[in-house]
User: Fold this.
Amino acid sequence: MPVVELAGVNKAYESKVAVRDLSLQIDAGQMFGLLGPNGAGKTSSIRMMMGITMPDSGRVSLFDKPFERKSLERVGYLPEERGLYKKMKVMDQLVFFGCLHGLTAEESQKRARVWAEKMQIADSLEKKTEELSKGMQQKIQFIATLLHEPGLIVMDEPFSGLDPVNAVLVESTLLELKAQGKAILFSTHRMDQVEKLCDSICLINNGQAVLAGKMREIKSRYERNHVIVEFEGSSAFLNSEEIADAKNFSGHAEITLKPHGNAQKLLQQAAAAATIYRFELVEPSLEEIFIQTVGGKANA
Amino acid sequence: MRNVFLVAKREYLEKIRGRSFRISTILVPMLMIGAVGFSAFTGRKINTGMHIAIAADSAALAGDVRTELLRDKYAQYKVDVIAPATAQDRDAQLDRIKRKQLDGLLSIENSADGAPHVTFTTGTFGDLSRLTNAFNRGLVHERLTAAGMDAGRVDAATKYVSIEQLQVNNDGKTGRTAGAAPMIKAVIMAMLLLMPIMLYGMDMARSIVEEKASRVFEVMLAVVKPDDMLAGKLIGACGVGLTQIAIWATAASIFTVPAVAGSMLSGDFSIHFTWMDAVFFPVYFLFGFLLFSALFSGLAATCETSQDLQMFMPLVAIPVWISFGILPFLVKDPSSNAAVFGSLFPLTSPFVMVERVALQPPPLWQFGVSIGILILTLWAVVWFAARLYRIGILMYGKRATLPEILRWLRYS
Assistant:
């Protein structure tokens, strides 16, 4: 059952087309990456999913039903920038958002305490939001998004402002939620995290989906023409005819082969010139796919 | 409806708990009391205790004028007499004025036609009515005694008689006029209406700009419809205004009842609150507050910063100026065309109507028409504000231009 489905959605603002014929589907227990350069139409797409704006044409379904506001009580939304009342106390804020999503004040308070413990911010519950650091505010926003146990979680740059320790905490929480069967939509520029966490992606550019599908399938479409070599000795093999581009970081080389370049031949040349500790033929990273697909059109 | 209530509750509680609510609840009445007290204090001091010199050709006339001046207990004049006075004497007194040793010189010179030529030279601006009155009474006294009338009989004949002012009330009964009390009451009522509108209407507009900048709206709109959000904000802010007025009214009744009762018993001064005040003040407060707050909210949604918002201030300031500027006309003729216009024009009617109720209540049909126009205008403004709000809060980057605002109204 798709938790969220966009089918042939279009949205234009005056003469600018924000989203053009976009179709995507996110299932329960799936982590989905919505990618694209700045101004590609990611926020416009999310806003239509959340009923903040209406599509000019096309269909938006939530929880296998045509969009209705009642369904939003089962959606958690974390915007890119902090959407919190600065002067409000953290607990009051969490209770307020919990109540807006249909919880009672008591239940909201109970859940807020549990989440605060989990996210290691229990000491800050009685503080005003403005007194907290950017990372702490992000964690509060994260809790506010999840307090009502939504079936669909929409997250715009969820790791923004988090230090590595807290980023791992959020990451593991998201994996737990995924295991519980929640559908999670990511919109981010952090390709490494998308690559690590997402099952499927949709890359949009100029309002159109230019690449979509399961992460494995997408990556398998691209030729394994990247080689990582760790070596000691002469780097003369980096001038090989098989290589299109090479970066040498003092014994760690990242190589892009020419189309139909022969990796085995390169291995022989490298072994003849230097001592090889590692020679790995890797598939392109999501970042490389992103750059290759969006090319020079991206502003990101 | 639940979300409207939740938003209203949040707005209400956050404002009530806020420092600005506590400060304004205490500070506004203190400033008002301070302003009234200062005016009363300085008003009493103007033209009192003046040191005047009378330089006259006739010593008898100068003496009679001095007697009349000293009779004025309120003015508390200190009077020197130089009579008969020469030109040098007058110049000497003018020098004293320059050196701030004297407040004024009343120069009385005989003239050929028998009517004396009188001038009053002073270093400050002042009201001459008390001086003129005293001089003319002194002149009559001097002339009658000069004509051979006995001084005692002159005093008896010219004894000062004050006029008691009476007023026909709305119920047709004639009674003592309340003097300046209705005017003071009108100003207090209009200020009570104005303060929460300015404080919380503008505060709401500022909070909209801040919430837009902090992207709270992004999260809110994912659960709450923009119209519900606006309704909740308006209700919450209106509740804060009403709470503040209730606090002021309660505090006023606790702290001023003994003082007012004392004044009423002595017959000096009294402010009466009628059933009309009790009915129409809350009605006009409610409509006035909602009207201005809705207007502020819609306009705030088109702004990016609080500075942008300042541009719209005249929209509120001008009706307020008109409402207070019209007050002297209301006092002079409460049913004049200006009064009726001010009572019906929706941006001024809340203020003008509470002023009129305090001074002399207008006919009931004017209440009906003015409230009807207010309701229609409120409906139109809320319609307009909701549309601006719906689109404006999601538009970032720059303040909306007029053509953009018109397009938003068309789209939504």
In short: The first helix of chain A runs from residue 42 to 49. Residues 245 and 256 of chain A are 5 Å apart (CA to CA). The mean pLDDT of chain A is 86. The first strand of chain A starts at residue 2 and ends at 13.
